[in-house]
Amino acid sequence: MHDFNYHRPTKAADAQKLIKKHKDGALMSGGMTLVPTMKQRLAAPSDIIDLTGLGNSGVKVLKTKVTVHAGTTHAEVATDKDLKKAIPSLCALAGGIGDPHVRNCGTIGGSIANNDPAADYPAALVALDATVVTSKRKLSADKFFKGMFETALSRDEIVMAVEFPIPDKSGYAKFPNPASRYAMVGVYVADHGKGNVRVAVTGAGAGVFRQKAMEKALSADFSANAVSGIATKADDLNEDIHASAEYRAHLVGVMAKRAVAGAK
Prior knowledge:
single chain, Uridine Diphospho-n-acetylenolpyruvylglucosamine Reductase, domain 3, Enolase-like, domain 1, five-stranded antiparallel beta sheet
């Protein structure tokens, strides 16, 4: 690991000033990706601006909306009692991320800002039609995620919270890599009522994407049988030592059925 300067501001405005000042610096919220990358010397930021000093954590559940502040850890999301009543699938998703160390250090803000193509939260945000609140603006999840490790965030823009509409029912199922627990394929389904169903897939491609054919079928009949026979094209899907593109395409259908069957 190369030498770096460490900063732990207590205000978002100060964090923005620091990242503007240090052109080779990096924002950190948990560090579950950044620190290992630095240890391997694949990244060498001159300055680390640690956002945990902002104290921006917690979950607020209202009648129709849930707000999860960016500094909330995966463990906190997984165990929040009010959230379990409002969106139980989101708690289940958070509880399946990594291992206890990752869940107690990693944050929802850090995860979505990093936008790993195999991360779980992007699927939740897209399927639940969430809104990302930053230090500058509000962005729909559909517009926030751009591609592999790419988001709409500007360099000095900080994720402050995520707002989730409470769906009628939702579910998430993933086929995890046995070592990392990252999603080789994960599918999140959400029924928002009035024929509005959203299906988001993570782990399969370069980034999270919606499965429109499944959305149409589930909007007419929200059942596992409704997605039977709906194929996902393997053309642009990931292929590595763990799974071929064709196998990932197959898993999209399998995980979609499980997600619908387990939705509540």
